[in-house]
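Weekly structure sync, notes
Attendees: PL (lead), two postdocs, one rotation student
Agenda item 3: pending single-chain targets
PL asked that the sequence for the first pending target be pasted directly into the notes so everyone works from the same version. It is reproduced below exactly as submitted, 752 residues in total.
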Amino acid sequence: EKTGKVLGEFCRCYKEQYGVALFNSVRYEIEGNGGPQAQLLHRKVPLEDHVIYSGNLFQYIEENKKWRNRFCVVPHNYGLVLYENKLAYERDLPPRVMVNSAGYKILTSVDQYLELVNSSLPGVTPKSGHSPILKCPTDFPLILWHPYTRHYYFCVMTGKEQEKWQAVFQDCVRHCNNGISEDSKVEAPAFTDAVRMYRQSKEQYGTWDMLCGNETQVLSNLVMEELLPELRTTIGPRLKGKAQERQRTWIQISDAVYRMVYEQTNAQYDAAMAKCEQERPQMESTIRTDMDQIITSKEHLASKIRAFVLPKAEVCVRNHVQPYISSILEALMTPTSQGFAEVREVFFKEVTDMNMNIVNEGGLEKLVEYMEKLSHLAFHPVKMQSCYEKMDQLKLEGLQQRFDVSSTSVFKQRAQIHMRQQMDDAVFTFETLLHQELGKLQGKDDLCKSIQRILERVLKKYDYDSSTVRKKFFREALLQITIPFLLKKLAPTCKGELAKFQELIFEDFASFILVENTYEEVVLQSVMKDIMQAVKEAAVQRKHNLYRDSMVMHNSDPNLHLLGEGIPIDWGEEYSGQLEAEPAADKRRRAKQVVSVIQDDEGGLPYKVGAEALLQPGSPEPEELDPGVQPSSPDGVEEIQKALEKESLGDGIKAEERLTNADVPSGASVQHTAPASPKPRAADVPAEAKVPHATPASPTPGAETPSPSTGKACHQPSDKETGEEVTPPIGKCRARQPRGTTESGEGVQTEF
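Predicted structure, written out during the meeting:
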């Protein structure tokens, strides 16, 4: 009954927002108005059929209250798949459990877990001296806690293992939380706006931690948010037994209710979406025919609402928001910019380490091996952890209560997803440019020089793109914090008066223009100017390596984006003919092995990064390096940076000529202006060189390296709502790609 009531109200909101989102999508398609062009390439075809992580850990089985060893595999879609053992995985037997981790929290302490369990059922706390609900056989637990559905208990033997698995689990949660595909330009905004409008109708403003997972999971959380307190009041006092038993029973009841809610929600949302899709062709035809009239009607409505709302909104902004914008921005900028700087550092280190090893170990064969590993760098949870953990510093103390921000986790995860995407874009751009150059190179000398030049070229593009991405993230985060606060403040004086504006909308256009949405746009405009100004001032002051809005790299690489449209590069397949043929039996045997992006037993790269690896024009030939002696690490970044500057400045013109993606059209001229001083003016520098970049810190060698992907098919996590499924007999195991998701970097989502 509760699910039907909530879904009924939500589907009404969704139908309204669907028309608005469709109009906005068509209008954007016609008018364009895109932002700055990205300099880095974006991977069109996602990396698939690789295993993110695999290894053994202990799982607590609630049915028999025993700990059992399990072999856990994390496929490219970030589901947690647990097998009886490694042999069961290699034989392609059905898994024991498949977990979708959307909405879960990763706990590394039993005390943390017990505190959450005790608070979930008020008044039921075990007495001191009594055994708790969970005992862990080691000091290194890993617990997946969810406010509504069942919990999962794991443990490992060492602290190092715990850190690795925690990074892997957090990556799974981060990925699965981002389950609403951003590729959908109509359904996704319609859904998120409908959720927001529904919650605001219940006087719930501000960020919501449980807006995570795919659409059905989010709606199930929406229902459970209202249903669970009622259940707790009704059922809680009737639970019998000791405190631990009552807690365990309550968790099981909550999980069972969540399963039922999920099934009902899934069916009702599917029906609502199918109805909107059925009406879409007619709506889109109306929009395209009457676009000008709809826009005119909307602007007329907005002008009337603006005259009524704007004076009150501006006073509210001036008194309650404006004084705090710079504080919020500074709190966001510091950890975010440190995280993006760390992404740059990790990328620089990995490529430079690879270049050094090619110098010492051999040419194309080693390049193919390292490039297969480098292509997965953005999806390496342990290597990316140093970037992600910078966001843990984000704190909005004092501001959280003022602006009703329940948690900073939504901002942390969004920034971390941007970091992963920027890393993957940098890697993809690097491998695309390098792949283009390989046919022109003569020997190992040219290869190493080209790698270094391409690295510098990609870093410049990364600096520009990361500045653009961060500024957009800061603006969105500031709006996400301030707009709900303003709407809540203005609601008593404005919301009741909005109904009178409904008569200004033509009936034919009522599906595409909503008074509530137009009112929110007016409120947004009242604060947007201050937010834009704050971000602009931070860029002008060069805070955190942000660039001014006026610094735009137009067509600095006119043909680069054409390269990204080509067939995806498969380093192993493409250059397999140049390498020694592998026996068919060995290939089959290797395919059955677990090949993870991370290997617990793999060591670091055999050679450290040395300044002598950065081959400069006129430098000694690589043969002069003694392969038996491990090159020394430089004392600091200065050696590497000076070498890079000497190469990029001294041979910059030749490098640009060599790395041009296509022939320059006749009549076109390419100007190269050498900088006249260490701090050249913007007008004296070529377009690409106008964007400065942070000095890369000294890379630390010895980090783990991802392994090449395997062609082995991965089990898709179950589409059951509970997060676990007792698998059917062999041959009856089915996999389903969840609705509304794609096999792309951010949109991949496993269902329950």
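Discussion points:
- The CA atoms of residues 241 and 328 lie 49 Å apart.
- The longest helix spans residues 291-361.
Action: rotation student to compare against the earlier draft before next sync.
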